[in-house]
Amino acid sequence: MALEGGCACGRMRYRLASKPMFVHCCHCRDCQRQTGSAFVINALIETDRIEKLMGETEGVPVPTPSGRLHVIHRCPACKVAVWSHYGGKQQLSFVRVGTLDEPYALQAGLDRAAPERSRLRGLLRFEDPVAGGKPRTPQGDFWIEPAT
Fold first, then answer.
1. What pLDDT score was predicted for residue 132?
2. Are residues 129 and 108 in the same domain?
3. Together in a domain, 124 and 140
4. Where would you tag: which of 21, 70, 123, 136 has the fewest CB atoms within 10 A of its CB?
5. 88 plus 139 within the same structural domain
6. 45 and 88 housed in the same domain
7. What's the structural domain count of the chain?
8. Between the CA of residue 7 and those of 10, 39, 96, 132, 136, what are the distances in Å?
9. 27 close to 125: Cβ distance less than 8 angstroms
């Protein structure tokens, strides 16, 4: 399995030389703040299994509440985040699944690092279009509860 991906401008390209250890969806406040979204989908893989095909990344250290730096690797030109290293652990990379050419090739084991207290209310997993007979409205891959 060799998946390829890259940044938005195309100057940075990479290949995953093997299947990731797992894919997860993180809803923690750090990921929300750093992405500007409700969550991030990451593929955890050994750093030596990422082959740089073209270009380089720029490591941007970001502070975290734990005090251990989170280094986000971005394309120096378009600034898209392609992977991260958490807590100084350079041997493991959290690849941003959205930067893969075929992100749907990976099956997410969703919500591994998703503390319930930090999830945004109203976002529900798409596999559950009806709860208790109450219909929901599709919004991309999620269903939004109607206002009551």
1. 53
2. no
3. yes
4. 21
5. no
6. yes
7. 2
8. 5, 19, 10, 42, 34
9. no
pTM of the model: 0.73
Range of the domain at 39: 3-114
Give the C-alpha separation, 144 to 71, whole Å: 33
Q: Alpha helices, DSSP H only, in 43-118? A: none
Residues 36 and 62 in one domain: yes
4 Cβ neighbours under 8 A, 6+ residues apart: 13, 14, 15, 16, 53, 100, 101
**66 shares its domain with 12:** yes
Alpha carbon of residue 31 to chain centroid: 8
| Tens digit of each residue's pLDDT (9 = 90 or more) over 55-73 | 999 999 998 888 888 899 9
Q: Which amino acid is at 24?
A: H
Q: What is the pLDDT of residues 98-130, one digit of tens each?
A: 999 998 888 655 544 444 555 545 554 444 444
Same domain, yes or no: 131 and 83: no
User: What average pLDDT does this structure show over 46-60?
Assistant: 97
